[in-house]
Inverse folding.
């Protein structure tokens, strides 16, 4: 496991006090079952804990990011971020997949690249981190590893730029934001829309897309990226 | 809201820095909808956050209490504790039901005693507490308000005393725990069982119950309460 310790130290500046916890997080049930006599712990219990701390940290993040989104929208976004495939992706991004201990059968059948296994591994790692270093360390890790991807739009559905723009501009009171289709081209099966977003009559972003909705999102995204100063409109 | 502040200060030694958060936690959607023009916040978003922190704290608690229970059992126990009816009960225990602000219709139809509303209120309160004081304060509050009821067996299914006993006794290695029915009496519709639990041949607890299973749980509970020293058996 020395290579894993090195990876964590170099990439995330993390050193576990209880390395046994870390080993458990990287031990799949199939490996523990194959070595039953050694009574090795596997990572399912840590996954239980990690799932809970992940839900909390992502909830806190979304709650703060969207001060006026209703609870139902926040729940939907959270479930996009914490779903198995997403978490498996984060495991791969971190290089965790090379370190999971699998049983022989599981290894042969491609378990090392299976989303369920890698998603669970990511949660188990967070559970171990919680026990070893506390909830603040988990927040920092998630901030470092997950949030940049969320904010880069890896979860396209998560960032609703129209809402985000509205929230940014409303800091100083109500504003009138409107979206207008300025062009519509192409044949029926491959239409392209161009949309302008204006605030109090001033154009602050433009976007294109295959649907009106997509073009609006794109225009709002541009406006958010343009960092319009809400006090100047 | 002064009465609520007093209650929190006296009963739980809690003073909120951000009392607006606390007011939001105690505002039901029906009240906010009735006063739409005032743009009052209601407690659904805080409930979203409170649900997440509650899940985490209860997960941590169960994880530590049962060092060898599989994840599936822990999940089941957690869901017993955090289900709506349980949380509504905690709201009532805390006296929170008298402070929730409801719309007129909701009040008339008995909303003040409705489990959904009171369960959500409890979660919203935990969400407000998390934002105002951090996760450690939530842990302390749950420890003070919820855990004693859990440990007193209010959630009979939560404390599995047979497992608990096994875990206590196995600290120093494997032991042989066995349960034996010593008496079975009464007519078919009202049987009573008596069970003895022995460890390495020594009786350490006795219990009665309407079923063999209930009597075993009772015997295990007695044994746990007897605080058998695992190094002496």
């Amino acid at each position: 496991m020395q290579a894993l310790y090195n990876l964590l130290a170099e990439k995330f500046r993390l050193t576990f006090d209880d390395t046994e916890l870390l080993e458990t997080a990287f031990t799949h049930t199939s490996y523990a079952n194959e070595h039953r006599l050694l009574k090795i712990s596997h990572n399912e219990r840590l996954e239980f804990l990690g799932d809970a701390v992940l839900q909390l940290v992502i909830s806190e993040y979304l709650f703060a990011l969207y001060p006026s989104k209703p609870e139902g929208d926040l729940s939907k976004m959270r479930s996009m971020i914490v779903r198995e495939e997403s978490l498996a992706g984060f495991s791969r991004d971190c290089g965790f997949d090379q370190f999971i201990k699998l049983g022989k059968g599981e290894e042969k059948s491609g378990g090392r690249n299976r989303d369920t296994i890698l998603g669970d591994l990511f949660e188990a790692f967070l559970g171990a981190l919680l026990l070893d270093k506390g909830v603040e360390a988990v927040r920092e890790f998630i901030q470092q590893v997950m949030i940049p991807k969320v904010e880069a739009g890896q979860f396209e559905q998560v960032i609703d730029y129209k809402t985000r723009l509205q929230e940014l501009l409303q800091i100083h009171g109500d504003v009138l934001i409107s979206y207008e289709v300025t062009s519509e081209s192409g044949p029926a099966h491959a239409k392209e829309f161009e949309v302008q977003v204006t605030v109090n009559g001033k154009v602050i972003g433009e976007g294109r897309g295959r649907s009106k909705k997509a073009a609006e999102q794109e225009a709002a995204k541009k406006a958010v990226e343009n960092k319009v100063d809400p006090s100047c409109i």
